[in-house]
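Escalation from tier 1.

The customer reports that the assembly of two entities below gives different structure tokens on two consecutive runs. Tier 1 could not reproduce it. I'm attaching the input and our single run for tier 2 to review.
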Amino acid sequence: KNQVEQSPQSLIILEGKNCTLQCNYTVSPFSNLRWYKQDTGRGPVSLTIMTFSENTKSNGRYTATLDADTKQSSLHITASQLSDSASYICVVSAMGTGGFKTIFGAGTRLFVKA
Amino acid sequence: GAVVSQHPSRVICKSGTSVKIECRSLDFQATTMFWYRQFPKQSLMLMATSNEGSKATYEQGVEKDKFLINHASLTLSTLTVTSAHPEDSSFYICSARDPPRDIKNIQYFGAGTRLSVL
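Tier 1 run:
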């Protein structure tokens, strides 16, 4: 069964600190993995996208890693800011005979405190 | 990046009325658009896939007569919640796929519509 599991469910950190969010998946055949940031009451915004051959991708203070062997990904946020408070969603696409299948993780809610 | 506009951002309506939500791709043609529903503190749930010029494909458990989807052009898809009830209150989000970049199945999301049915 195709699944995407994220941890932790929620996280509270102090402004300026770093944090790492985890995503484990059992999706096959794997096509790509994306991290999205979703502010409360807004639509998701893409942070990074990685295919099978890519194991790291950066976007400013956000760095995503992918281990396709262990089917794990992480999103590292450096020097957190108050505006980083949001839900971070891991999304994995599988490419089968019927086309793409997109599986969403439940998200990690990050709270950055001053 | 590609821009998807969703309108309205918030709507409050009386029970029994119908509400239409629009999803537009502003700078690209989207042959495929997706409609999601999101409950508080939960992730997005795919409701249906909308293909331009053909009938939408609904996910299991989603009533097609309740949630009418029309994708009449390459830049516009609409979701109409018919005879809305309080349990339809939710956050509805659309996304669109940009065909030239389709190889990676990149979806661009609208800002969402908060529907409150009184």
